[in-house]
Specification:
Radius of gyration: 18 Å
CATH superfamily: Rhodanese-like domain
Largest sheet: 4 strands, parallel
Order of helices and strands: EHEHEHEHEHEHH
Structural class: alpha/beta
Shape: globular
CATH class: Alpha Beta
CATH topology: Oxidized Rhodanese, domain 1
Strand order of the largest sheet: 1-5-4-2
Number of domains: 1
Number of strands: 6
Length: about 250
C-alpha cells in the first residue's frame, strides 16, 4: 500500500506535478486543451530562461524539442535537445540521465513541438507516467518541474528568432521533406505503440529505479550514473549574474 500523501496543494495549472510546491517557473495559468495535467509556460518565459532571467531561481534547465530531426536541424531554440521518440526520453532521463536525477526540484524540463499540440504534451505525459511508476508510494517525483511551451516553436520563432539556431523555421508539412516526415511518422508511431504496451519494462530500467526507491527511498537514485563523456552532458548551475545566459543542462551532440 502506498504511503499517505499529506500537505498537498490543491491541483491547478500553477502547481507542480507532485503538488508539494508551486511551479518554479511562472505558468500561463491555463490548461492544455488535450491534457489538463500539463503545466504550460509561454515562449516569453522560455526566452527569459535561456537568457538568464531565472538565474539563482533554477539550477539549470532542459529544453526538449520533440519535433522530427529535419525540423530541429532546420532551426531550433538555442540549447534545445532533440528527443523525439519515447526511447530517447527513457534513455536520456532515466537510463543514463543527462542531469542529476536527485536534483530535479530546481531543474525545469520544458517540452515543445511545432505547435505543442500533440507531440510535446504526449512526451510530457509519458515521462510523468514513468516517474509516477518509479516513485509509487513516495510523495516526491524525480522530475516535478515538467512543462510544455505553449503554442510551440511556431510562436517562439515568430517572437524570438534571435534565440534560434539556425535562424529559421522548417514546418513539419514542408513538401521538400515529405519523405523524411513519412519515415519519422512511422518511427514515432511504432515508438508510441511500444510505449503503450509498456515495452520499457523489458529493459528493466523503470523496474530497477522503482526497486531503488522502494529500498532506499529517493536517496537511492543517487546510485544512478550520469551519461558518460561523448553523450549530452550537464552544464553549469545557472547562477551567473543577471542577464548573462544561464547554462543549459544538456547540449545536442548529434
Amino acid at each position: 500500500m502506498s504511503a499517505p500523501r499529506v500537505g498537498l496543494l490543491p491541483d491547478g495549472p500553477n502547481v507542480r506535478g507532485d503538488r508539494l510546491k508551486e511551479c518554479i517557473l511562472p505558468t500561463t495559468g491555463t490548461h492544455h486543451k488535450h491534457h489538463t495535467s500539463v503545466r504550460l509556460v509561454s515562449s516569453k518565459t522560455v526566452s527569459k530562461l535561456i537568457n538568464g532571467d531565472f538565474n539563482g531561481i533554477v539550477d539549470g534547465y532542459v529544453i526538449v524539442d520533440c519535433r522530427f530531426p529535419f525540423e530541429y536541424e532546420g532551426g531550433h531554440i538555442n540549447t534545445a535537445v532533440n528527443f523525439w521518440t519515447m526511447e530517447r526520453t527513457v534513455a536520456n532521463f532515466l537510463q543514463t540521465p543527462i542531469i542529476d536525477i536527485t536534483s530535479g526540484e530546481r531543474i525545469p524540463i520544458i517540452f515543445h513541438c511545432e505547435f505543442s499540440s500533440v507531440r510535446a504534451p504526449t512526451m510530457f505525459k509519458y515521462l510523468r507516467d514513468l516517474d509516477n511508476e518509479i516513485t509509487f508510494g513516495n510523495p516526491n517525483l524525480i522530475y516535478p518541474e515538467l512543462y510544455v511551451m505553449e503554442k510551440g516553436y511556431e510562436k517562439f520563432y515568430a517572437e524570438h528568432p534571435d534565440d534560434c539556431t539556425p535562424r529559421q523555421y522548417i514546418r513539419m508539412k514542408d513538401k521538400r521533406y515529405a519523405a523524411d516526415n513519412e519515415q519519422c511518422e512511422n518511427i514515432l508511431s511504432r515508438s508510441r505503440e511500444e510505449a503503450n504496451q509498456k515495452k520499457w519494462l523489458q529493459n528493466g530500467t523503470v523496474q530497477s529505479l522503482n526497486d531503488l526507491v522502494k529500498v532506499h527511498g529517493m536517496e537511492g537514485l543517487a546510485k544512478v550514473k550520469l551519461q558518460r563523456p561523448g553523450s549530452p552532458t550537464p552544464g553549469g548551475a545557472g547562477r551567473q549574474a543577471p542577464r548573462t545566459p544561464s547554462t543549459p543542462m544538456a547540449q545536442i551532440l548529434a
